[in-house]
Amino acid sequence: MEGEHFFTKDIFTVTDVMKQDFSQHGYILIRNILDKEELDKLEVALNKDDGIRKHGFSVADGEGRNSKLCLWNHPGTDISGMVGRSEKVAGTAESLLGGEVYHYHTKLMMKEAFTGGKHVWHQDYGYWYKNGCLFPDMLTVFIAIDRCDRSNGCLQILDGSHKCGRIEHIMVGGQTGADTERVDQLKKVLKLRHVEMNPGDALFFHSNLLHSSNINNSSFRRWAFLIAYNKATNDPVIKHHCPQYTPLDKVPNSAIRECTNFTDFTGKDFMDPSQDKTIKCDKAEVNEK
């Protein structure tokens, strides 16, 4: 796959080639950014019944299925926060965006086996534009918790679509989606890629990159851990459900292995879906597992 790179412990740096790939394609894929030990620790915090997933809610995909997620505004001091604050994740985001970043939000996306809904074609900046972010100086890091492939609804992207600028977004089901006519035209001139990932792989992608994912009809769940960063100079002009500029206290990569906090989520500020204008959530399905 274009833009594919590999994480090498202790000697990893963001190279000029990586920056060029991000500029040209709108993404880079870094294999094995989290190793098995780090991933196992992260899943403890995500998967506990009284942990992060208890803050989840369901969003309709417009075709009778739901996508489940939970979202929080500040990284905190637990293991999930260490991942979002680590040099290999946050530091890479800074190198790709060309300056200081802060944590905009993190979310756990849960496509359960046989039932997981789709995510319509959209740009993240299609959401974040409405939040008062004046520039698309933002990116998302999609870290695979489970194997992601075509059978369980892996991410699909239009290579280079970040160069087309922001597309008008409208409500599609319970989600905000890009104008379908414009997306269809772009599909004729840009390469559609299915981003198949192993657990621990990370896709860093620009906020204007068009992406979507299909339903999960397989017998395997597809969970993903997504961290969004905003450039410090792009402080939103509207106060909304995600934070204004908040300095990010980065930590060395070793902090992930050293962290023993799996249950104290103080300060993370989990999102109330009723406060987000870019989604529609059935209140009866909030906290559905």
Largest sheet: 8 strands, mixed
Give the total of beta strands: 14
Strand content: 25-35%
Average pLDDT, all residues: 91
Helix content: 10-25%
Q: What does the overall shape look like?
A: globular
Distance between the termini: 34 Å
The radius of gyration over CA amounts to 17 Å
- Regions with pLDDT < 50 over 5+ consecutive residues? 282-289
User: Largest beta sheet: what is the strand line-up?
Assistant: 1-2-12-7-14-5-4-3
Tell me the structural class: alpha+beta
Q: Please trace the helix and strand order, writing H or E for each element.
A: EHEHEEHHEEHEEEEHEEEEH
Total of DSSP H or I helical runs spanning 4+ residues:
7
Write a concise synopsis of the structure shown.
This protein has 7 helices and 14 strands.
Q: Could you walk me through the main structural features you see in this protein, from its secondary elements to its overall organization?
A:
With 289 residues, the chain is of the alpha+beta class. Helices cover 20% and strands 26% of the residues. The chain is built from seven helices and 14 strands. Strands 1-2-12-7-14-5-4-3 form an eight-stranded mixed beta sheet. The radius of gyration is 17 Å and the shape is globular. Residues 282-289 have low confidence and may be disordered.
How are the elements arranged and paired?
Elements: E1 4-6, H1 16-25, E2 27-31, H2 36-47, E3 57-60, E4 66-72, H3 79-85, H4 87-97, E5 101-111, E6 119-122, H5 124-128, E7 138-144, E8 155-158, E9 169-172, E10 175-178, H6 180-187, E11 192-195, E12 202-206, E13 211-213, E14 222-231, H7 254-258
Parallel strand pairs: 1-2
Antiparallel strand pairs: 2-12, 3-4, 4-5, 5-14, 6-13, 7-12, 7-14, 8-11, 8-13, 9-10
